[in-house]
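Q: I'm building a small set of examples for a reading group on sequence design. Run inverse folding on the following structure and report the sequence directly after it, with nothing in between.
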């Protein structure tokens, strides 16, 4: 069962199954919604997956101290690992190792401990994401010297990552060199703006995307595709390399229905029976059209895919798509 919480402009999801969730019988919470979302986790023990570090996915739902977080899953991208662990341990100092939990990073092809899940993104090699060889990332050391730091300082400072289970061969230095290379090329005299721009757009590229095969009450198999804020570059890579893994009955539309994250070709490859969009008509940057964008609404309609929205879709002060609350009868999905 997939529960989509109406958390406003953000994502907060709960995945439960009679079979298994990854490597435990616990519910898997996927993202926590924005800061103004005040719902509290009800279970005594959960697993938690954070798709990426954006505030509308990581700052909301509260986890009371009585609750044990068995495993925290985060994307295999070094700067995101730092940001997520720092943020969550700031909110909950006991999370998770202090309460006998684990911090695991996820990446394409990672073994999840559950035969029903397939991790599709992010790739473990940062070159695959950005197309930049860290050995050829120019000007990194000189740029960092301007701020009195270095790659080694970044690795050694900030959050304590002793409890993170890194895969063999994982090299944080590669990610840092690529990130600093990209930031330095965005820096036109405003370093803070360059860093924020990098984190805003490039964090979407490393959102955890995974497919989960669920068995409904009739014993029929359903596939959920959970997408975070993955952008079109992620899906284009998967279409090229793993198109079959994108097929799904239920699509959690990425990035609240942004036109930068889906197109007709991608939707046709996924070929979902239904789509669910978590949103609250939020605008991003200088965009005039709030999420969900009218292009995505039109693509879903053209493709004959029923779309379910957590809130009414408002365009020019008119409701163009009504919200849905409760069970979606054609799938094991509920909007709460």
């Amino acid at each position: 069962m997939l529960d989509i919480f109406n958390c406003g402009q953000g994502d907060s999801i709960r995945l439960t199954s009679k079979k298994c969730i990854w490597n435990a019988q616990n519910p898997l919470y996927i993202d926590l919604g924005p800061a103004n979302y005040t719902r509290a986790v009800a279970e005594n023990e959960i697993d938690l997956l954070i798709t990426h570090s954006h505030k509308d996915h990581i700052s909301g739902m509260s986890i009371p101290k009585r609750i044990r977080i068995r495993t925290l899953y985060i994307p295999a991208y070094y700067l995101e690992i730092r940001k997520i662990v720092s943020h969550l341990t700031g909110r909950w100092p006991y999370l998770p190792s202090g309460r006998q939990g684990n911090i695991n990073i996820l990446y394409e092809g990672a073994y999840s401990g559950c035969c029903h899940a397939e991790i599709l993104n992010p790739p473990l090699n940062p070159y695959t994401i950005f197309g930049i060889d860290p050995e050829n990332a120019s000007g990194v050391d000189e740029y960092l010297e301007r701020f009195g730091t270095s790659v080694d300082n970044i690795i050694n400072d900030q959050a304590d990552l002793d409890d993170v289970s890194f895969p063999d061969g994982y090299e944080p230095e590669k990610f840092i060199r690529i990130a600093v290379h990209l930031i330095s090329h965005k820096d036109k005299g405003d370093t803070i703006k360059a860093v924020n721009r990098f984190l805003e757009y490039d964090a979407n590229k490393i959102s955890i995307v995974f497919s989960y095969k669920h068995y409904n009450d009739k014993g029929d198999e359903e596939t959920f595709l959970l997408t975070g804020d993955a952008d079109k570059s992620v899906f284009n890579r998967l279409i090229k390399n793993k198109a079959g893994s994108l097929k799904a009955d239920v699509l959690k539309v990425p990035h609240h229905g942004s036109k930068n994250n889906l197109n007709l070709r991608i939707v046709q490859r996924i070929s979902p029976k239904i789509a669910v969009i978590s949103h609250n008509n939020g605008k991003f940057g200088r965009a005039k059209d709030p999420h969900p964008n009218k292009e995505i609404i039109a693509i879903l309609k053209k493709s004959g895919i029923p779309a379910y929205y957590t809130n009414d879709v408002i365009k020019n002060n008119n409701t163009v798509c009504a919200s849905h609350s409760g069970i979606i009868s054609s799938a094991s999905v509920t909007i709460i």
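The two ends are 12 Å apart (CA to CA).
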